[in-house]
Design brief:
Radius of gyration: 62 Å
Strand content: 15-25%
Shape: rod-shaped
Number of helices: 5
Low-confidence stretches: 202-239
Distance between the termini: 140 Å
Helix content: 40-55%
CATH architecture of the largest domain: Sandwich
Oligomer: single chain
Length: about 450
Amino acid sequence: MGFSKKIIWFFIIWVCCNVHVRCSQNAEGVKQRKPFFERLRRLEEQFRRFQELSLTRLQTISANFNISSRVDLRIQSLTEQYNKVSATMNRFQTATENDIATLKSWLKKLQKKTKKIDLKMSTLEQILNERSKQMSKEKKEQSEMMSNLTAAVEDQREGISSLAAGRSQLQKEMESIRDDVKGHGVIIARFEERMKSTLQNDAFSPKPRPVQAAAATEPRVHRRVPVKAAHQQDSQKEGSICNVNSMMYFPNSSIENYATFGKDFSTGLFEITICSWLKTKANYLGTMLSYATEDNDNKLVLHGRNTGKQTTIHFVIGDPSFRELPVRPLLDGRWHHVCIIWSSFEGKYWYYIDRRLAATGSKFRKGYEIPAGGTLIIGQEQDNMGGGFDDNESFIGTLAGFTIWNRALSPGEISGITTGKSLPGGQILTFNNVSALNGEVQHYNCTCLEHC
């Protein structure tokens, strides 16, 4: 296109030059004709104008040609940029599709995890609801225990006040007895003086002897009267709790000290009551009893251990199920009556201290049976049937009136045992069924608790 424009430009210049030469050759012939020259001038002027216009047009065309070349370059650069942008967009689209696929897979995983978390949350809510219900029940039971404890405290206060009154009365009686003793001493001194004088005055007289014997017997009888009355009063006091039968003493913590029953449970037990009087001076309560079979060494255990500050013992029925029972009130060196009751039919247990309910609970081994054919030992915890003892788990102290029933005693029956009434029926084991004493364990017969 540029070469054709150059040819046109040269052709126009050549035409203009020929026209000018011809005009100069014919100028002489034309001199005579003025109109012709005028027309020639006009043509020259027109040619000049045409030349100027053509030059301007050619300049415009060249300028446009430069612009078009620049446009082509610009279009080419834009095309390259477009290709680069399209390639970048394709890469971005591919990366975006990969990211979207990854996000979809993560979304599926999150949905699965969310479902699992929802299930866990629902189960946790159920567990929390059950625990809240159990806590409410335990609060009610604790309130009942607190009411029982307050009643026990009031009873102890009344007992302390009665003891204080009895103490003052005993002091008064002791003072009266001292006065009587002083009076008897004066009488005895006088009698001794009279005896000396009679013996010195008439040593051979037979008649004064019966008088002296009578005089001697009279003050002796008079002196024994308050002692006998005091003994009768003590016997009436000691006869208040006389359903004990016998006691067993464990002097120290040793694996040698234990007692074994000659017979075990004849049949499986779905209910059981264990009651005993207990006294210990130790700062902990060891294992009172343990019942083991060949397949399980913890079928029935009242397990305690020598720890820093013991406040509870474990009541085990069929390892590993157990409940904690408070024992702090028992560690004062005095006699206390303890009863533990369990019922498989209700899945409940009750724990009494001095006929007051100290602990109770539910959902404990419901439907379970304590089997027969095991070994029952007092004072040690069995790690295997008949052995495996630990001296830190030994019982130290005295047990009296130990009895086991094959049924759940009522609160009235527990109160009757504690106050000294006869033992209820259904007894299956007592200390009379003990076949062997080991170590330094001592077994004594005592009808009333005050004699033990």
